[in-house]
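Q: How would the C-alpha cells look for this protein?
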Amino acid sequence: MKTTVEYGKIITRIRKAHGLNQKELAEKSGIGHTALNNYERNYTDTPLHVLEKIAATFGISLPDMLIEYGSDLFPDLSQHKHQNADTIAVPYLQTKDITKELDALPALVKNYITLSGDMVKSTGKYVCVKVKDDSMEDDGIRKNNFAIVRLTSAPIDKSIVLFVSRASGEYYIRRYFRDGHIVSMMPSSQSGEYSPVRYDERDTDYEIVGYVEKFLTSPM
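A: Here is the predicted structure in C-alpha cell form.
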C-alpha cells in the first residue's frame, strides 16, 4: 500500500508565510523556478534533498518544517490501526539514511505495509526495512526480505537488531551481544564476507533502532 503526501503544500505554506513569491524562493534556494512550480503543484514528487534545501533556506530543520507547516497532511503511520482494528500500518523506511526518516516519523514516510495477527494487539511502535545483504543467512534471513523492527534502544541480549552508523547513516541487521559497556553485532553468515561490529556503548558511533520481531519474504 502507498500513501502520497502533498509536500508541495508545505513548500507553498512556508514560502507564503515568509512573504516570498515562487521566483524569489527559487533564487534564494537555488532550485529552478520551473521545478519549484511543479513541486508546489504536486506535478512531480518532491525529493528529500529539495525539502532539505527549502528548510535550510528559512533556517529551520526539516522535521520542524514538516511538523509546523504540514502536520495536518500526515497520517500517524508509526502504528495506525485501521477501522476494522484487525490490521496495523507500519512505516516502510526506504532512504539510504533511515535516521532522517526516523527523526521525522511519520512525516517522511510515503510507504507502509499492512500487518495483521498478534502484532495488532501490541502497544509497541514498529518500522519496516528491507534486508540489504545475506549477513544473517544462517538464521534464514536473506537479502530482500523485509524486517519488522520494534523500536527500542535497549534490546534483549542475543536478539537480532537493526542499528545504524551515525557517521554514514547506513543501517545493518546483526545479532546483538552485550558485555558490560562493550556491544558486539555479529553476522551469522559463515562466508567471511561480513565482519562483526564492536563498539563501546558509551561512544556515539552507532545507534540501536530496535530489535527484529519478524521477517517477511514480501510486503503484505
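The helical segments are 7-17, 22-29, 33-40, 48-57, 62-70, 98-103.

The radius of gyration is 20 Å.

Upvote if useful.
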